[in-house]
Structure formats: structure tokens, C-alpha cells
Amino acid sequence: TEIYTLSLHDALPICGDDEELETTRKAAFDILEGSAASLASEWGIEDVPGLVMAGWALAHGVATLVITGNFEGRLPTDLAAVSQHLANGLIGLGSVSSARIGEIGT
Q: Cα separation of 93 and 5, whole Å?
């Protein structure tokens, strides 16, 4: 939790001066970017930076909501349930988006 919180605040001295932390941050981004590139290649998606941004935003957004207690009393907090609901929501959004793009394109 502390490392995640620190990663949100580049202005904190530890982030700019800690070589190990910077190496870890780069390695994490490389994994994200590599995963996005593999997925894009496999599924014929052209916008790799878009996948990187979406994955990064989702991961950090959900982590922030869980860490700050915003799910408490509102939504499931169990990691498996959060993951399943997030996947279902993304699939639903993807279906709606595809349908809307199809409507706009015609």
C-alpha cells in the first residue's frame, strides 16, 4: 500500500532519488506495455498506447478506490469479486461502445 501511494506522488523526494524504486517502476511499466503489445497483436488492436493507458488507469483507479475505502459498504471488496465485476463491467462497456461505433459509422 505504501509503495503504491508513493508512486502517485512523484514530488516526494523518495521517488526521484531512489534508484531501486525507479528501476521497479520502469520494470512494472515494461510489463504493462509488453502485455498490451501482446494483446494488441493477438486481437488485432492497433492502439497499443490506448491499451496501456486503459490498463494503467483501471489498475490505479481500482487500487485507489480500494485503498481509500470507497468500496466499503457500497461494492464488494474481495479481490476475486472486484475482478469479476470489473471484467463484467468492461465487457458490457465494450459491447455498448462497439454498438455505438457501428451506429455512428453507418
A: 28
Q: Please work out, in degrees rounded to the nearest 5, the angle formed at the alpha carbon of residue 45 by the alpha carbons of 59 and 43.
A: 90
C-alpha cell at 4: 503504491
Tens-level pLDDT at each residue, the chain (106 residues) = 565 565 555 545 555 577 888 899 899 999 999 999 999 999 999 999 999 999 999 988 998 888 889 999 999 989 899 999 999 999 999 899 888 887 776 5
Residue 101 grid cell: 461505433
The backbone region for 18, taken as left when phi is positive above 0, alpha when psi lies in -120 to 50, beta otherwise, is: beta
CA distance 98 to 70: 30
